[in-house]
Amino acid sequence: MPHFDLSLDELRAYKPALTAPDDFDVFWEKTLAEAGEYALDARFEPVDLPYTAVDVFDVTFAGFGGHPVKGWLVLPAGTRGPIPAVVQYIGYNGGRGLPHTHLQWAAAGFAHFVMDTRGQGSGGSVGDTPDPVGSAPAVAGFMTQGIQDPHDYFYRRVYTDAVRAVEAARSHPLVDASRVAVVGGSQGGGISIAVAGLVPDLRAVAPDVPFLCHFGRAATLTERHPYREIALYLKTHIGQDERVFRTLSYFDGMNFAARATAPGLFSVALEDQTCPPSTVFAAYNHWAGPERSMEVYAFNDHEGGGSFQQAVQLQWVPRHLRG
Fold first, then answer.
1. Annotated Gene Ontology MF terms (predicted)?
2. What is the tens place of the pLDDT at every residue in 147-171?
3. Catalytic annotation on 301?
4. Does some domain include residue 99?
5. What is the mean predicted confidence (pLDDT) over 202-222?
6. Is 112 a catalytic residue?
7. Pick the catalytic residue: 5, 55, 208, 272?
8. Is 135 a catalytic residue?
9. Based on the structure, what is the number of domains in the chain?
10. Which domain holds residue 126?
11. Tens digit of pLDDT for each residue in 242-285?
12. Residue 214: inside a domain, yes or no?
């Protein structure tokens, strides 16, 4: 697919108005305070696997509403003292998968905490975390579950789980709680941006081709799912546009990026119709952290830079975690 969005020069300057409602910060302060009323209860059960280079733990912790959320913790074998950690969030409808797919960061000498995404895990990688909360009528998928009210919206639960995942990782005695980075691709990238705006003391944030940014433009620019779910909902629920986009404004990566306090490493693919380049740059250009950089993949679609971007991360993330 050839380039379909703004030119690269236009993208580098693209900085649309933020959409955060006046009570954005209060909404999230209350949401996280409510989650904090439940004991984190992070449990790390050793997993017996034929690995000699890593130790793997099956993790359970209390997320939004005290609901149990699963994850993996992968440590370099024989770790004796606290080491920096990388917390990873998963792409749309993927789950935590199997432990052998998460060896990169432990091989680099870091603790690697992988959060399962509630209700997902049937597309690409298996998940193990149910979402016990129902919703009003919604389009198939996750983008419109609870979209009538920000308190009910699916990603309110997911973003809260993601903050609690950082807390769970930090609670392990072999993790250096002062040196934590968050990473993710697509949906995982969008979640990492949200966490960057909600957790003030991260060392680094690395969102790849991030989803969940600049909803107003994404829903009218691309025909691809998952953003297309929003348009399909509004096609049936005629007249609900203002209500829907007000809900989404509480979850827009742009608004979290403007509250970020850590360095950020982004990537974008200029032929990406799943997460259009202008939506990625909308968050990037609002990034408030002390440092930001963008890797551009000019002829790639939503796969982004793949292993090339992993190589960039393996140089960039350790510089911030070990510094």
1. carboxylic ester hydrolase activity
2. 999 999 999 999 999 999 999 999 9
3. no
4. yes
5. 98
6. no
7. 272
8. no
9. 1
10. 8-321
11. 999 999 999 999 999 999 999 999 999 999 999 999 999 999 99
12. yes
